[in-house]
Amino acid sequence: MVQASAPGKCILFGEHAVVYGQPAVAVAIDQRMSVGLEPSDVWRIDGMRFDPSRHPHVEALKQRLWKDGPPLAIKIHGDIPPASGLGSSAALSVAASAALRCARGRQIKDDDWAEGWTAASPEDAYSGPWELKKGDFVEVGAKAVDVDECAILAHAVEATAQGGRASPLDSSVCAHGGCIVLSDKIENDLNWIYSRSLNGVSWEVHSVELPKSTEDVWLVIGNTGIHAPTSQQVAYVASLIEEHPDRIREIETIGIISRRGITALVEGNMENVGRAMSENHLMLRNLGISCPELESLISAAAPSSLGVKLTGAGGGGCMIALTRNPKETSEAIELAGGRTLISRIAAQGMTVDFEGESTLWNPFE
Ligand code: PMV
Q: How far out from the chain centre does Cα 358 lie?
């Protein structure tokens, strides 16, 4: 049995503005998706016959990493609610990439990878089939797994499943964990990790080292249970700016607030982080992407929190509250009709475990 898991995410600052090049900040949450693999007579997911149309991310990864491999029984479980802006599909894709890579090993020749990812663009991140050379050394188990590779594979399959449009924010934070900042330029003072580009858009991806004081606060996530497609929300903001070009100033203001939020995070000044979150929400509300249900959860959480805002695309989905009193904040949100999850800020990234034999297919034999 090979098993891998990856965290979900929520956006602390900069949703929507990131589409216009401003920085966005996301953190990994405690809720995770895990993917287990076992040899099987036929392809199965959770005991049922595998239906590629129901699992487009898994199917896309199977095509890249397991094309001629033997059938597997795949077990998926987790506590990230789907389609709520918490990164469930990216977490699933990262965990599935890690599990498949662990299960197939990696060919090594002359101390270097003989196959694997190479490019900064998810379009050709893993362009196999590689020319398999019998006898080359195969690295097995968790050593064959690479975080950056899982991040780029997850980005690639998210883009495939979403018709070619996906930023690398979810895939990066679900793979690396912690706190990730995406921007259209390299941000001074942050730890730049890589560039990504897709369909003519480029992003610079950074990680942020968070100080100890971020461990004394919690995020309470309140889910409205309303599903508003991200594409619709993004299109709404685009048409607003097209009709009223001066409103790009609000987008730029969100960028300024995000940068202030990043500084406060790095300093560990959680009061200022909360203040920046609430200001970010006011800008998002002015843009018209909140909704009455989000507003009522946000009002309920505000008195016991350092900061409150919607997170992700808006129009439904989730809000977050930064709080030192997670129980009180969670109860207030539930009383107002939301379903809650509690998380620390910046959870661990992907992990891989296996019991017994890790190699379920050696394509190099
Ligand atoms: O809720 P999510 O994870 O789909 O967040 C969407 C974030 C947006 O900025 C609204 C869109 C995007 O592509 O960045």
A: 26
Q: For ligand 1, atom 4, name the residue with the nearest CA.
A: 85
CA of 15 to the centre of ligand 1 (A): 6
Q: Are residues 197 and 273 in the same domain?
A: no
Reference 33, options 13, 58, 66; nearest CA is 58
| H/E run at residue 151 | helix 147-161
- Buried residues in 257-284 as b, exposed as e (16+ CB within 10 A): bbbbbbebbbebbbebbbbbbbbbbebb
Q: Among 362, 352, 364, 360, which residue's Cα sits nearest to residue 109? A: 364
Same domain, 217 and 336: yes
Domain boundary among 157, 184, 208: 208
CB 147 within 8 A of CB 7: no
Domain of residue 302, CATH code: 3.30.70.890
Q: Is there a contact between 264 and 278 (Cβ–Cβ < 8 Å)?
A: no
Pairing of strands 44-45, 72-78: parallel
Same domain, 316 and 267: yes
Q: Which residues line ligand 1 (CB under 6 A)?
A: 11, 15-16, 18-19, 85, 167, 170, 230, 233-234, 312-313, 317
- pTM for this model (two decimals): 0.94
Do 163 and 125 belong together in one domain?
Answer: yes
What is the atom index within ligand 1 of the atom nearest the CA of 169?
Answer: 14
The share of the chain scoring above pLDDT 90, in percent, equals: 76
Lowest mean pLDDT among 21-35, 198-212, 257-271, 334-348: 198-212
- Same structural domain, 244 and 196: no
Residue 344 has pLDDT above 70, yes or no: yes
The number of domains in the chain is 2
| Strand order across the beta sheet in which 307-311 lies | 307-311, 318-323, 218-223, 339-344
With tokens 């607003």, the residue in question is 240
Contact 35, 270 (CB under 8 A): no
Query: Are residues 262 and 173 located together in one domain of the fold?
Result: no
Lowest mean pLDDT among 67-81, 122-136, 143-157, 284-298: 122-136
Indicate the top mutation candidate among 9, 11, 89 to test ligand 1's pocket, ranked by most ligand atoms within 8 A of CB: 11
